[in-house]
Amino acid sequence: MTQEHIKTTVKKKNLNTPRHSARVAAVQALYQMEQSGAESTQAVQDMITSRFTTTASEGYVEPDLDLFKQLVMEASLNIESLDAIIIPYLAENWKIERLASVIRMILRLAIFELKECPLIPKTVIMNEYIEITREFFPGGKETNFVNSVLDKTAKALRAQTA
Description:
Helix content: over 70%
Order of helices and strands: HHHHHHHH
Strand content: under 5%
Mean pLDDT: 86
Low-confidence stretches: 1-14
Number of helices: 8
Distance between the termini: 36 Å
Radius of gyration: 15 Å
Largest sheet: none
CATH class: Mainly Alpha
Shape: globular
């Protein structure tokens, strides 16, 4: 899926907010890190110099830089613990590496926010990442999968606030 397609989808769904844009960029940065082996600081800088300047120049809302940095830097430091939360929700004998890379990144970031950002309502986090999944996989079953995992995870992580 092209970046242009994602921007068009975001614009159509009126999700073109700084926080949403930061989350999409964070998914892309984590994906870049996994694919290229780049460090988090390099991935953050690459996104800032390429995507952020392009986004602003094309009339889209510039991503929330602080949220973007927090998501990429902190989630990348906690991949093992985030994956440990995801694994119980996978089918029996299904390894996390078998998930599409983008799905892994979406789940990691959503679970990071559910776990570490208690002031953001769980429904906001879930809706954001479900919409991001739709942007990357329009009409796909991936959205249902992400919704299911996030619903179960949110109930477990935020049981005291449910």
